[in-house]
Amino acid sequence: MSMNDDRERLHRLISFLGASKAIADKVSIRQSYAPAEVLAGEIRVGDDCAAIPDGGGFLLFAAEGMLESFVADDPWFAGYSAVMVNLSDVAAMGGWPIAIIDVLWTPGAEQSSVIWDGITAASAAYGVPVVGGHTTTIKSGGAYLAAAVLGRAEHLLTSFDARPGDDLVMAVDLRGGWRGNKPFWNASVGAPLLRLREDLRLLPALAASGLCKAGKDISNGGIVGTLAMLLECSGVGAELWLDQIPRPSNSELERWLIAFPSYGYLLSVPRGNTSQVLKHFATRGIAAGTVGRITDSSLFLSYGAEKERFL
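Given the sequence above, the corresponding structure tokens read:
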């Protein structure tokens, strides 16, 4: 492929990413949580979980709301995802989950039962109990779903510790398939239960090793939206090498860049530790690769020999 081809491909990708509402929401997310920063005291806001000092470690506390359209279109998987994404948040900070609670509003039992089936399946798959919450029947309208998780960590991975000169590493489970026509890569439903649980434990083990101190789970803002949040928290920039990103075979790069991958993490790794971090995931069959580097400022995207500023 020629440099002109690389340039044209990069321009198309940047145009596509620039038009993504999911990415735009992540880029401006600090405006949304700014009121919480005033209230949080010593707790840093912007991480995947609130990390609350507790004895020699940390309690981790997080919540996720499901998009109304997601709940309406795929209620079972929305229920499953309400658990799964919270467990990913805890793992992303080097922790393990203790319990989940739900917040569910539906017009009646008929609408809620399918959602509960998904919640139950995920709770059983990952071995994390749902211990209560708030479930309400409303007379009209759609269904609304959120969940919160309590976890614990002894050593933290945070969104605040990426440093210029670090390698940007992506770890992702490619053993799955697309969920319908949505940008949801399902690498969880139907996977062996022991594998799901042990794969999540890779993150606490990585935190304990000291090989890496910064990272974030890839959310529904996709790779670029998640990276933008990481850079915002750490006050740094990055180069992201779009053509180096691990992705499923026969999947369009555009779709993959905005996908929620079920099990996917971006990590900021000191260069001398990168090979060990990649092996850490490879031993469990998780695809991992160096997809860029952390810099002083701005986010640049590259494809082949071409590079252009995105943020």
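Residues 3-31+158-309 form a domain with the Phosphoribosyl-aminoimidazole Synthetase; Chain A, domain 2 fold (CATH 3.90.650.10). Try to locate this feature in the token string yourself.
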